[in-house]
Amino acid sequence: MDLYIKKAILHAFDPGQPEITFSENLMELTPVMLDYVTKKVEKIYSDDAKRGILSEENHFLSLVTDDFIASTITVANFWREEFILSEKQKQNDLLFVAYELDTQPHFAFIRLSLRDSFSHDFDTTTGQIKIRKTESSLPGAGSAADEAIAINRKTFSYHLLEKRIKYNGKNYNYFSENLLAEKPDISVNKAIKTIKKTAESVAKSYDDNDFAFSQKVQNAVFHAVEKQENLNPEALADQLFADNLTARLAFKDQVKEEIPDKIRFEQMPMEKIEKKLSNQKLSLSNGIEMIVPQSLYEDAETVEFIQNDDGTYSIIIKNIEEIKNKW
């Protein structure tokens, strides 16, 4: 990811105050601050991010102009109008960043929920190291943003990490529903879970949902990710239910309710997604648990799964040169 931070500014939201406290000047991007801001922006490009493309007439998009500081104030005030409706509000810092990603201009809004933390001081009078509580601390650089949107100012495509707010006893995706007023695509992470859950549900209705089928689903998704192809529910249906037309059609219809189109992998943390899918994790009824790498799971010379006549399973692990005991 070729990321170049150009500008950043931090504003403060306190639910006990009538207005947001706005910074008048840009952040000084020292090496430490530059590293912090860069990592926060990188975290937006997560497999949990929803994605879409804003229309040119979109109101939220119209608030982002070439005047960076003015844009941050306008967006912050627009955000506050919706967020203040939520129950149990906390203090938040609002980080805005102008940057280039793969040479294209981007604008990011990142909500950072402040929290209590602990540190230590050395008391020279007593010779003791004491723990003290620090209120309203920013989250660490490695943690994901509480909420964020990154917009490509050339293509108007966006990545969105959003959290629902509770208002009048109901939960709302206020960012996409009210601020963007558009429905984003499902995240890659949720799409994978939806595909797995739907496939297993359809298979169960046809008495075909055993551990082998579950692993077949994971295997099919893993290979699509490994090749960095689009995650195509229709192609997966053909793989998973090749011999059952009715099941294949049922899977396509049910998946389309949440995944109307192919899932794209552009600007996704592919290594992280692959790692999640790279091992088959098996929990056996006798208490044994196994982790089998995908590459070995499909190799009959390494591991073999046998269904016995009485309906039980046997697993044969072959050609083991060394066994180590891990504590």
TrEMBL record:
Its GO CC terms are: nucleoid
InterPro entries per the UniProt record, alphabetical: Nucleoid_associated_NdpA (IPR007358)
Please give the superkingdom of this protein's source.
Bacteria
* Protein name per UniProt: Nucleoid associated protein NdpA
Q: Which organism is it from?
A: Pseudolactococcus chungangensis CAU 28 = DSM 22330
